[in-house]
Amino acid sequence: DHGVLVLAETRTGYPTQSMRLGQLPVGRSHVLLTIDSDKVTLRINRDDQKTFSREFSEIIAWPLTIGDNLPKNNLNGNFLLERVALYTGALSDQEVEQVLLGFQEVEERAGELKPIVARVELLAASSIPLPEDIIPYRRGLVVNEYRIIELKQGEIKEPVILVAHWAILNGETLPSAERTKGKVYELRLDTFDNRPELEGERLSMESENLLLPMYYDLDV
Fold this sequence. Notes:
Helix content is 9%, strand content 36%. The chain is built from one helix and twelve strands, in the order E-E-E-E-E-H-E-E-E-E-E-E-E. It has one helix spanning 93-112, and strands at 4-9, 17-23, 31-35, 39-44, 50-53, 116-124, 140-153, 160-169, 172-173, 184-191, 202-205, 214-217. The strands form three sheets. Strands 6-7-8-12-10 form a five-stranded mixed β-barrel. The protein is elongated. Residues 68-75 have low confidence and may be disordered.
């Protein structure tokens, strides 16, 4: 909620217990959350651990829902979750350190890859599906066709490319999903093949030029 991480627990016959755990820094972060019988502990990146008391004495039901269990008017801001892992018990200090080191290595590798920055003209846009049209998916990408006008950083050999943009997140259509044919945009891109985490995501594509190279829009 406005960049604040919120944990909400709902139980039949009881009001929802909401806990504001803290402000997330801008950009990518690693969040480690432990829900125990009487407390919640949180670590963001390598910051000191914070502890919060819990109203409910035990955890008796799943599923865990992320971003969907609060009223829509409280869900302000867009976010993406990657490399989510669930553990049935609290991690030891050594295990926590291994997890954090793994995230640090991923970030260091990602930092070595500079995004491609290009000014492009939209040639053709795919139709944006309604959130209810992609159920059971809660998020989806659309693929548009662009002509390269100016390459500011990186290398693209082809004059025309396909770009996948996020159009739906958490069951809501993004305002940025609508694109205007003939308009020029500046995009930060990575090759789609460099993003294995996108495998299995809902992808809407209407372009007939399926052999064009495809890129991923890094900005939500």
